[in-house]
Amino acid sequence: MITSGVDPDYGPGPSNPYLDRAIAVAQREGVVVHSIYFSSAGHFGHSLWQINWGQNYLSQLAEETGGESFWLGTSNPVSFAPYLNELNQHFRGQYTLTLLAQGNPGYKRVKLKTEIPHVALVGLSKVYVPSGK
Description:
Layout: E1 2-3, H1 17-29, E2 35-37, H2 43-46, H3 48-65, E3 69-70, H4 81-92, E4 106-109, E5 126-129
Parallel strand pairs: 1-2, 2-3
Antiparallel strand pairs: 4-5
């Protein structure tokens, strides 16, 4: 996803129902979202307050879905190549984890751990447990 993360209709702030819904749907469907910050045109493109919230939203969306978020301060990147190269490295080291989730339907927190030293695991912060029907 390449965007400013700013929704001019909703506005910035600590709570954004659109962001919460996007995260919930991505987690439910098992979709990993990676984001690259690219500023808006006009006022939203140079308002530090708007930029800050847009980057926060993109970072939260990526992190809670197991993705990466990229930005270059408040400026637009000269090239997407470094970000795309890093994502390519992530894709080459990517594995699918399958787990047997039990309990009541709904979202459940997940914590990934490994016994292998110096390994960073990136994944969803929650998974959706469907009903057992």
